[in-house]
Structures
1.
Amino acid sequence: MVNKLNINEELERFREIWKLRPSAAQEMHHTKELWDAQADLWAEELRGERFRKMTERRVQASARFLREKGLLGADCEVIDLGCGPGRFVTEFARTARHVTGADLSTQMLLHGREYAEECGVGEKTSWVECDFGKADIKKLGWEKRFDLVFTSITPAIDGLDALEKISRMSRGFCFNSAVVESRDTLEEELYRYLMGNPPDRGFESHQHWFYALCNLLFLTGRFPITEYYRAEEEYTPKATAETADRLTEFLMKKYGKSPTWDREKILRFLRSKEENGTSRRITVYGFILWDERETDRTITGL
């Protein structure tokens, strides 16, 4: 006899997974001041070839996914929550009727507006400064306002209440992108070299949120569409004390291990890698799109 699953119990299980957050010691405090300070740095990095190309490829992959699903057309009104320096806003505005960028950082919005003007789509964009966690979407006139509510790797969607808000804003579809895998072959090889065995696998980055969101959407009748974008970058590590210290700090933070190693041992490993081959950084982004047009169940259950 097959045991029956209780949908309400499953919903509660995935709501609990969605609510998981980093420890207090690791959690960032996302303030206007923090992101204003980051804005000029991001804008400067986007002028560099490596970071600019990586960002452009991810933006293009997201836009291609949405356009293939019939979105971002001339009749589509879009909002990007946590828009940062506005790269998605500008790309979407090339084909959509109008795109709103919302962010709590004044400086991010200034960079976004400037970039949209440079690309000739400024008149098809608008920019709203707001802390989405505290925003009253009814007062803003955002209830059932948008054909697409877009979110990508943003702390604006930091809990179930925020997730429910974006569903109430959409008269069409919602989209979320998250990092579902982030690997560096150098770090994995160093761990094996130091510890004698491969690192334990567990949920990492935003992987558990993507996993929970897929299930929450399915269990509430939204039947999400998913796709993945994989970005890879080869590099040759430098055998420096700074690299050794960075790797030590990273491994101890990620795996909670405290092996007895010294800098010279790590430097020997790095010299070997510097002489004999490259390493790879691999990032996999999960895209998830869902339809809010005929949904009568809430995600939060509140």
2.
Amino acid sequence: MVTPIIQSYVHITNRVSNWLFCILMLFVSGCVSLSSLESGGNAVLEAVSDVNIFTDEEEIQFGKAYVAEHDRKVSIYRDPIVNNYINSLGHSLVRHCKRKDIQYTFKVVNKKGVNAYAVPGGYIYIHLDLIRLARTESELAAVLGHEIGHIVGQHSMKRLTQFYGVEILKQLIVDEDSSELTKIITDIIAAGYLFKYSRDNEREADMYGVQNIYEAGINPEGAAKFFEVMRDMQSREPTTLEGLISSHPLHSERVVNVRNQIKGLPPKSGLRSDSASFRRIKRRI
């Protein structure tokens, strides 16, 4: 259950000093002024958007608790052949990613709509409809690589720090009831707050994803092509991409950035764009 894990986060005495140190450094550096804090804390939010106060162990613990709740509310696709393929492809990318200190798990969701998302602790979910939409293995790998990029960048945990950390500061200033912390995190989970990434988060995940699939021997052009497919599909069938757009805003700039990154990669022979295994899975679903 999520509740015991969340309640354990209420006991944050050992975190407060670290958090206050971060805030102090922001004041000293001139990034945050007292007036900006008093006027609502927006400058604080922006300045600490790249701070993560949680350890890897706490992230893993939080992820397990989240997944326990999440998997009871969605239909996990149980076809072992499809799941084995997705796990095999996913772990072929993990071997080349920038964060290998956690265990990654890949799951297929049988739910209408094109979507994919990463849960803290190394859990990657991908909808059947997204697999159906991908035209080549490189396009599918690009999506998995992007989601792995969110784990590498610890974007959800930084979002949690950004909100939860500022609430700690507010509690210290106005002496709010600490029991509110549990409610705050529960509300964040219910609202999907962890997946409302910033543009910088998306850019970083794109960068990690392109580099990841390239190093894994997969043609990174699949990333640019899949972004273009989504961009075109958004104008034709916006409701189909509703879930993906809400967590991963589509910007033409991202396509340009990815293409520029690909141009800067050194030539590499043998990059694959497709496979017989991918085509077999496509026929199966």
3.
Amino acid sequence: MDLRQIENIVAIEQEQSISKAAERLFLTQSALNQQLLRLEKELGIQLFERKKHAMIPTFAGKVYLATAHRMIDMKKETYKIIHDISNETAGEISVAYSPERGSLLFSHIYPTFRRRYPNVTFSIHEAHVKKMETMLLQKEVTLACLTYSQGSKHAAIEYVDTKKELMVLGLPASHPLAHLAGERSWETFPSIDLALLRDEAFALVAKTTRLRTMIDDSFRAAGFLPKVLFESSSTATVVNMVKNQVCPAFFPQSYVDPSAPMVYFTTKPKQSWVQTIAYLKGEYLTKPEKYFIELVKQYSASPSN
């Protein structure tokens, strides 16, 4: 079995498309399709159902792919262990993080990391938490800088906690209820009855995010569905709507700015999540990967972050 061919077939499974897999592998669509056809002819059975918008593994395909994943994993782990034993300082770390806070974290810690491991490169994937968990489980990345809330941990994932933060409700300073926050709400985060804002229109983060799940839980607890002014996949955009005196919004505590023209609350039940760096249980971590985790922990422990 040709391991390169196996990796190519796995790419078709992951992308559910020959054209997308070929683009990722820097192959022509025709070349990749011919590889698959030759393999199916060799095996005497079809590995994928060629549907209109997706390549779906057949039962035989699932059997082949299960073994293919194990072989690829064995190769990756073997190479990682050998590099560690030989004290080689070259290699690649595949890491996922959020487009906003995660990219800021990486830009801060990378210069320090590079001074120790100048020949280690990164394969970066930007995604929201739910997608990052899927990427970990499918072994598309080794590390993920994500968050989890109570009851949302996955049994197959190891979590290295770095920081706990509240989910806060921001109100424009000009809002009629802003006075309920009192003094220094960026430190005290007083509780507010969310039902008082029943008639407000909110800026909300996208439904695909873990934060949105927590927000929806808060509205359910308050007994009403919110009016939605707009939704955005960018938390920074949502925060700016509050700063610009447009509407209230929920966001993580790490976005709190004492100098911004807004006040901050929590709602009942008070909700929080934990920032963490995650990897699959049983995953062999190289020395550079362990060092990267330590830098993430140091960055998160800084009072300014």
4.
Amino acid sequence: MNEKEKFLTIGQFAAMHGINKKTLMWYDEIGLFKPAIINPENGYRYYNYHQSSVLETILLLRELDISISEIQSFMQNRSAENLKCLLSEKISDLDKTILHLQAVRKTLCNHHQNMVTLLTMDLSEIRIVENKKRCLVTIDIDKHISFEKEVEMITSETAKYQLGRLHDASYGSMISVPNLLNGNFDNYSKLFIEIPFLTQKTGLHIQPGGKYLRAFHKGDWNELPLRYQEILKYADKHGLTLYDFSYEKGINETVIERIEDYIVQIEIPILS
């Protein structure tokens, strides 16, 4: 007899597929997957090799969180067309899940990096760092727009990208280098939103990659202009040409209770 025509016990068949034999017993009881034969004398279930592909299909569908009732419906109307449609739908769902998990991972990495920065930073230091290019969603603002209106604009903009929560994105503000050089330290141009899963698309702001001046400011925002004056003096002293925008973002809002402890990270690109 050909090896593939031999029968396997329920234990052997379960072990071959990495499942518990109770799962096979349950599948038999609900009519989803039955053994090839049942010994009429002792009720023992036996399976053959040719049933493996059918069981593996069921196990794959279960791994995709397809309900038992859906699988039963498919098994009763099993065909290449029905399986193609079912798998196409689940591949689409899986792609969305992967995209979400990638976004969550990037958000966690951003928070983790912020904590590393907090634990190693020197608040008085101004230094040069290397940054990668980023794609940002931006919102134009001016000093006459109220905070409530800014929140409304952010909420509206992020809704376009179907974020699960606001904290799936990171936020900050932008002030142009010409405004800084002219002493207009409160003349902010834009709010930016970095959404983890965005790639370069039409209409997005491209934050350049390359060298940046990085500094930090802790405490009263009214004293930010003094910090910018220090940054500009540092750039002038070291012959550095700043361009584009200053990108500001808070890095410790998740671990503080007082606004006086709020730390802003300031990064301004440098012309090579």
